[in-house]
Amino acid sequence: MRLSLILTLICYLATSSIAQNNDSLIVQLLTRHYVYKNLETNLYYITEKDSDIVKIKDLNYVVHLIHHSGSYLQVLDSQNNSYILDDEFKKIEKPHFYGLCGTVPHYTYRIVEQDNYFVITEDETFMDAYNETPAVAIDSIPKKGIKNIYFPNKTKEVSYSSNLFSGNYTDLYPNTILIEKGCKTGILNSDKTINYYKEVVGVNHLLKVKKNGLWGYYGITKKPKYKKLEPFHHTLARFELKNGKTGYIDTQGNEYYKR
Hints:
Elements: E1 3-5, E2 28-29, E3 33-38, E4 43-48, E5 54-64, E6 73-77, E7 82-85, E8 91-92, E9 106-114, E10 117-124, E11 136-142, E12 148-150, E13 157-161, E14 178-181, E15 184-188, E16 194-197, E17 199-203, E18 206-211, E19 214-217, E20 228-229, E21 237-240, E22 246-249, E23 255-256
Antiparallel strand pairs: 1-3, 2-3, 3-4, 4-5, 5-6, 6-7, 7-8, 9-10, 9-13, 10-11, 12-14, 14-15, 15-16, 17-18, 18-19, 20-21, 21-22, 22-23
């Protein structure tokens, strides 16, 4: 049986799966274990560091949840069941999340009307608690043709701290601009282009988009293709295709099915 050791960036990149395309490279996991890939089956297994004892095998997907205190893995087994393991490889309901510092920047974004434009302003409201530095305009959008404009919370104002991005494994879009024109809703991209969809829904600061009756996640899935698409649980979101087949996507949009 042909085996390989897989190098991964799990110690540094929260959204990196253990699966890589390198042969004969070693990775140390959770200080005491190594991860291997069977190139014939494309399944993963984990052994103790100084022995060939297999602790767990036949994994479809593995990722290290580095944003949590302690060492935890999110895995899919060969039957595509998702669960969390602690460093003793025991299944747990919920990993313990480390505490966050409250002394961090807080931001408020607003959409205000000025003449023929919608102006987007940014105001830091914690470090500048006395508002000695006023809000600054960071963008402007011509009003022409716009039926409505708002943030993903469906209002023209959104506030959050930089802690929002701690402990998340996906890109977040809390202050992305949504624009309604006609019967469609558009997402304003950083290059000023707009992607239009039948529907855009904010889900845990992600943007769930609908087109032709199918769903996807903006910035993650290449296009809407799922009949059903659930919220992300750490690094995985469950889906159902039009044909009824189910599986999971990871934070890069890769799909995983029952073997």
